[in-house]
């Protein structure tokens, strides 16, 4: 177990509720079930959404216990994982207390402030990935600076603090995408510069912190790819087949594994970029590198995520080792599992919230229509455009897999009724 | 939700603790998480061992909630499943109260008394499989009588109440296996008749109930097979490929899917026997039919289990739909999933408790030695010969799969150290 700070009575000190908007952390008391027979560890996950939820099936198989620091009692992970205290990941006392009941700490998002993680490490808590690596996923300016130093292929970019700096950059590229360095996800914090968005851009610049904003070349890409890597603290790394991903309104919509019509050289290049980033940045756990492929066949790094990622959901059904099992193995410094695809093609399609709320009823038709489709639902309330689940189909024929997975997702969402 | 019996205040009445050796059931209070968004149901499972535990991963994927009536707080399932109240499955009030918080009731063992199940059904609780079917898994004399009526292939057998009746039967067969009609499992309640066991046999006869014992022909089988079937309340049925299973000391040890060197006719016969039993007995959920294959190629029914079964653990990694997902789909009357094998061969080897207790440490070597082996541990305390986990290897070459799975199981058990 990691170091704890019990008082003489052995009690864990209470968190300082005053500093925590979510209220003090309420930890499940230690029971006779602690420790697990056989020396199995407890992995603490910060964040209680579907990514933490999907770590539970491999944790059950491995015999590892998960504890989740959740945002709410009714979160996606809290319904699947035994111990899911609610607490604020931005509060040091809360995170420290949570960590004291875990053997290793990991994340389903990158939002825990660096200073909290530094303090935990100083207290002897294994934090994986560590704050040095996570900093590059938290701050896109730091990420672009680092990747450029490493000579890795990026779109043109500039740090801009003023309208004049932005205009100067805009003159060097065919189009500009403006990004807030921190806090963006799923299309949020991203603005394509145009006449109609100029006022918004000025507004963003006015409100930006001292570091300003990240301006990037709007890449004329032909498609998006993703390289999914896992890396352990001892430096072992594994790379799944490179996939093609399709976004809709800034949200991942469809993934095809492996990416069709990718030459072996292109696949090797994308994998090599992913492995190099994982190693140079000292990532531990799963790293997703979102890539643009350009008309002339170049590959450019778009975004990084240091956790299981939507572009890797296909691995649950489609690979020998899923990204969720691999993330647990990596943060526990266990040898990594085989990443081979289990079928020639795997297609994953997200189920986004629509008008239809009676999700369970859709199973009657979806499962009868296609007994081979694998359905994954996240136990989240339906909201328009929200990721509420995904479906996966594996097979020998890509068009067949695509048609089947799209049908199932559209039916569950309520877009079609046959 | 099924019918409940709340008093006017809405409180669930307390179970009658006096009748329950385990103490009164302690149910997790209903929370804001109840019901789950999207209309997803709750499946109640009687029994908190590894079979209930292994239902949790597919329940998480499907978005279905499990509640388990467990034997102890530290049981295998209780460590993986959120709501696992401890209670006695032989106590009507306990089971009734448990059922009141579930949409459907199912089992990981066959030991709930029939009268309790009849009462639940009278109260409107969906009990799957129902007591009429379960009776044939609970009582081996009833099973043999029924299968013989149906003309299904059984070893020679007789109901014996006295030594004379046993002797008379013994003269008609080359060898005798004596079985207690109720309560046996994993080799318990089974006695091979010989000079050295004659005294034990007399003792069993003396202590037997009014129905006496089941005497069966000791079949000179060449190997054991198993047919795994799932059946839904609406009568849809699905059969996985027939497997070969190897027992050691009366406990399932190894399973090969599909059974090697089985002719298509033999496979069809075994499957047909399984489907016929599922239909004629009105089974709902998974049915495992253990079979003997004789030297002259005949197939005889050995035992039945109406729940996920050790002979089907290979389906977790080796089939499109696992027996645990299928059991949930069946008891929820959802359309059944595809049962196709995902690889030419899948080998499952049980991990039995040995001398070695530091199970987790074994992962370091097992996973480095073979990144493709799938490990499943049950979070159970190590006891000699106890089922504490299993490993699975899928591949194109049977000998390779066998060697790899056996190595991993032996290493985790501590039988080998390289």
| Envelope shape of chain A | globular
Most strands sheet of chain A: 9 strands, antiparallel
Low-confidence stretches of chain A: 1-33
Mean pLDDT of chain A: 90
CATH fold assignment of the largest domain in chain A:
D-amino Acid Aminotransferase, Chain A, domain 1
What's the tally of helices of chain A? 13
Task: Report the span from N to C terminus of chain A.
Answer: 53 Å
CATH architecture of the largest domain in chain A: 2-Layer Sandwich
- Structural class designation of chain A: alpha+beta
Looking at how many chains there are and whether they match, the oligomeric state comes to homodimer
User: At the fourth CATH level, what is the homologous superfamily of the largest domain in chain A?
Assistant: ATP-grasp fold, B domain
Strand content of chain A: 15-25%
Query: Number of folding domains of chain A?
Result: 3
For the CA atoms, what is the radius of gyration of chain A?
22 Å
Largest interface: A-B, 61 and 62 residues
Q: How many DSSP E strands of chain A?
A: 16
Name of the top-level CATH class of the largest domain in chain A: Alpha Beta
Pathway (chains A, B): Purine metabolism; IMP biosynthesis via de novo pathway; 5-amino-1-(5-phospho-D-ribosyl)imidazole-4-carboxylate from 5-amino-1-(5-phospho-D-ribosyl)imidazole (N5-CAIR route): step 1/2
Domain ATP-grasp (chains A, B): 144-332
Binding site for ATP (chains A, B): 140, 179, 216-219, 224, 302-303
Enzyme class (chains A, B): ligase
